[in-house]
Every structure is written in structure tokens, then in C-alpha cells.
Amino acid sequence: MSQSQCCFFTCRLYEYHFIKENKSWSEAQKYCREKYTDLAKVFDMTDMSRLRNSAQNQGEAWIGLNNNTGGNRTWRWSLPGVEYIHNDSSWNLNGRTGKELPGNCGRKRYDNGDKKLVDVSCDSTMWFFCYDDKKTLNLITLFMNWTQAQSYCRSIHTDLASGLDQVDGEEMKALITTTFSAWVGLFRDSWRWSDGSDFSFRYWDMQLFNDEQNKLILIKENKTWEEALDYCRIFHRGLVSITNPYQQRWAEVRAKNASSPFVWLSLRYSCTLDLWFWVNDKLVCYEKWSREGKTEDCGRAVGMQSGGQYEWVSQRDNEKYNFVCFK
After folding, report:
1. Distance (Å, rounded) from C-alpha 158 to C-alpha 81?
2. Where is the C-type lectin domain (predicted)?
């Protein structure tokens, strides 16, 4: 039987409880709904501090944020409590300049023509506007990507400028003395809170996110699971294990270029122990099985789909597929 080795939080009227039991995310959600209210939700940095304090350095834990939405992305403002209301007149989908590509973060070009919002890649770098608790706006003339700009604003001020009242208001216009593009607090994602709350607050470990992006490499050679395991150990750092959504995402990015229907992961079934395990001893804290893909039998390892939903399917380990290595 598969087990996830993660603890989790519950939240009852914003009273956080650290539950030190080993459960998958779905099991943790069910537990919380039966005994409390739901898995923990986080509204702002104050909640984030209380959540950390309740954990008391006891390790990783599930919270209510999940990506079980089929990739359906929703626009949000970074500043907690500011509701995003779509207005076609606020957007200019043809307003990109230079090498800008469509993306999931919002920037605005400021000049006498008062250009509209444009969705561009979050990796672009530009100036940005911060909002502080004195209800003032600050133009930061440093070149940062959207996530760096958000972190800067949260550490030095309050958050990125959010809401049309801030982005288009008179105070903003007073700061504009030249033509430039700048980040505002607009982003879209497919994450949702377990209890249905529409909170826009996110506090990702971006160092982990960025590290995982660069660590994975697709090997477009068809090998058995053991051959793939040996190849990765000899030429790289090992066959990939996936223990969080970030690693899953970047494995998907690599897998989409595979020449086989599946790519091998390092998850294998042990008949002796009657459980699934990562060969590098990583804890099984994250899973993405297809509905009928989890066959627990001797000689089985996991192949991730190289398209579609990129779900995990147990395969006979003598099948030959492409595979993903840690660099």
C-alpha cells in the first residue's frame, strides 16, 4: 500500500493545528473536513507567520492550496483582499513590444497615451510599482522579473500595486514622468484553496522552483527501467524522483518532447515491502496517478505520460521508454 510521508495543517476559524500523521493530500483533506473545518488556508503574511509558528519546525506539511483544476487559470491581484473583476477595456492584447511573449503576469506601459494592461511572460524584467501600508505608491526603478518584484514589495513595502484604483489612479499618473513598462500585481494561476476561498495570496519557495527547472534533462533513448536507472547514475545524478508540484511541472516540460508514450521515473513497487518507493530514498509526498494506472505487482515501475495530463501509470519494468534524469 502506498503511503505519503507528509504531515499537514488544519484550520478552524483561522486556528491552525499541526497534525503529525502520514497522509496523502486527499486523505489530509478528508481528515480535516471530518474533525475540523478544512485544510489550512492563508490570506496574507500575518496568516503565513501564524502558520509557520504552529508548525514549530516539525517538517513539511500539507495546506489547502491545490492544483486540481484541469489547468483552468484565473486572473488575480497580488494584494490580499483586492478582487479581480474582468474589464475588456482595461486590456490591450496587441500591446506587446519587442520580444515579449504571452504569459501569466500583467504589466502596464505608462506614457501620455496611457496604454492598457498586457499579459506577458513572468520571466521578463522591468521596473515595478509597490504599494505600502501608508496607501502610497512607489515606482521601483530596478529590473526584476514579476516574482522578484513581488518579493521585493512584500519585504520593503506591502505588495505590488493591485486593483485598477491603484494602477489607474491619480497618484499613479503623478509618478509618470517618462515612458516605461512596469509590473503591477496582476497574475493568473490554476491553484485553488480546498474550502473554495478565493484568496489570492501565494508564497512560493521560488528558489526551489527555479532550481528544479534547471535540474532535469530528457534522454530520448528507449531503455528498460533498470537501464534508465543505470544510465542516469553513470552520466548524471540519477533517475528523476518527483516529490512536489514544481518537480512535476518541470518533468512535464521535459516529457512533452519525448519520442515514447511514457517516460520513466524512479518510483518502483516493492513486493517485499508492499509499497511504492523512490530509489533515491525520497519520501513519497506527492502523487499523480491516472485513474486506473496504479497496478501494484512485482516488476512494476512508474512511467509518466509524455502528453495529455502527464499522469503516472505503472508499467512493466522491461518496457522501453525515454526517461528523465537529474542533471
Report:
1. 13
2. 16-131, 130-204, 220-326
For residue 320, tell me if it sits in a domain.
yes
> How high is the pLDDT of residue 239?
94
CB atoms within 10 A of CB 248: 20
> Cell digits for 152?
521585493
- Provide the pLDDT for residue 123: 81
Of 189, 223, 242, the position where a domain reaches its end is 189
Q: What is the mean pLDDT of each run of 10 residues along the chain (327 residues)?
A: 45 73 88 91 86 78 83 87 85 76 87 77 90 86 89 90 87 82 91 88 67 77 96 92 80 93 95 84 79 87 94 96 94
